[in-house]
Amino acid sequence: MMPDLAEWLGLLAGCLTTLSFLPQVWLVWRKKSAGDISLGMYLLMCSGVALWLSYGLLIHSRPVVLANGLTLLLSMAVLLMKLVFDARRQPQADRPGG
Fold first, then answer.
1. Can you give the pTM of this predicted structure?
2. Which end of the chain is more exposed for a tag (fewer CB within 10 A), N or C?
3. DSSP three-state, residue 5
């Protein structure tokens, strides 16, 4: 019974930590702005989560794979919006050919 309990605890922990990214994704999308978000932090976060996902796949751990797979998607969404929205905010004079 303990392995089942451990797996359920892992799934619950993964769900909660993964869901913690949803408010940030929603806020950035709604405001179409990510100026206050650290690019370095999200680059490191995506890299670390990708490694956790790889680890989960190697050890065949469903909680690790599910949590980190979803977290990677959400953190990459924020990272992509950061890059796109920051590029749109760049002054015209600073753009190549502008």
1. 0.79
2. N
3. helix
Extract the tokens encoding 81.
């919006």
Tokens of 80: 């992509």
Cα–Cα distance measured from residue 5 to residue 43, given in angstroms and rounded to the nearest whole number: 33
**CA separation (Å) from 36 to 5, 71, 95?**
39, 20, 21
Tell me the per-residue pLDDT of 14-53, one tens digit each, with 9 for 90 and over. Answer: 889 999 999 999 999 999 998 889 999 999 999 999 999 9
User: What pLDDT does 62 receive?
Assistant: 86
> Exposed, middle or buried, 95 (CB in 10 Å: 0-12/13-18/19+)?
exposed
